[in-house]
Amino acid sequence: MSLLNRLFGGNDSQGEEKDRAFWKILTSEQMLEDAVKKSHEKKVVLFKHSTRCFISQTVLKNFEREVKSSDKDAEYYFLDLLAFRNLSNRISELFDIEHQSPQMIVLENGKAIKNASHNSISLDLV
Questions:
Q1: Residues 6+ apart with CB under 8 A from 125
Q2: Which InterPro entries match (predicted)?
Q3: pTM
């Protein structure tokens, strides 16, 4: 990291990558199907994120902090809904949940058991 980044709080990309190591990046309908199947073994969390939204970025960072300090046994899937809008729409259809951004959906036994958006997103729902 350069001196300017240290002084002015530049990104520590290695630290961010390590912080986000628990995410499985959701990029296809097959991965979504696999996540639904996995929810029969343990809870699955789908996190829909808008990369252009400051609120979504803030909620994401807060949620990641919660996950890092937790021992909850769940699988965490991250969806960049701008890059994969069709997949976001499929999630809404599949679980009959209105699209929000940011949004967290908790799956158990193939069904959405909880969902939240914006500042209601919390690991307490898992």
A1: 104, 106, 114, 116
A2: BrxC (IPR022551)
A3: 0.84
